[in-house]
Amino acid sequence: MSVYIKKDNKGKKRIDTPTPIELCEQIANIILEHYEINNILDPCCGDCRLTKPYNNATIINYEIKQGKDFLEVEKIDEPIDLVIMNPPFNLGTGKKLAVEVFMDKVLELVGKDVPIVLITPMGFRLNQRKKSTRWRKLRDEYPPITSILSLPLDCFEKTLFHCEVLFFNLNRLEPHYFIDYI
Fold this sequence. Notes:
By secondary structure, the protein is of the alpha/beta class. It has helices at 6-9, 21-32, 98-110, 133-141, and strands at residues 39-42, 58-61, 82-85, 116-121, 145-150, 163-168, 176-178. The protein is globular and about 45 Å long.
């Protein structure tokens, strides 16, 4: 499978790619070493892997396949200590990454001060033009990226994709981590 030649990847990338359990556990370990988490929002929870390691937290989940579309939510009443998400990378419409759509909706509902963990294609942060709207949002509107977890190309099962985990508003973390379960 080639990540660089589009025709070689055609039909090989899964539509729904679950987050590796070991990655979910590593993210939780990184956060729980420095923070007490009581209320978590996962706006695209899939099978709830990302939040499973947070045993004592209250979890607020949304999943379109379960009839709960986060992008249609107008208000979240509960206080949120952490947003953690692995949104779909593409909504299948237009050039805007689904990751950006989910990030914008999270910020609309919980504000810019809540810690956020975002699994994202590297193109969300990198590969931007000077006049790119996303570049401006990352630089001027989104909360600060306080840490990055670098992932290998083959981190996700049967998928080759340049991904990373971005941590926003989590100042007690190290600035950079590498995946540790390989």
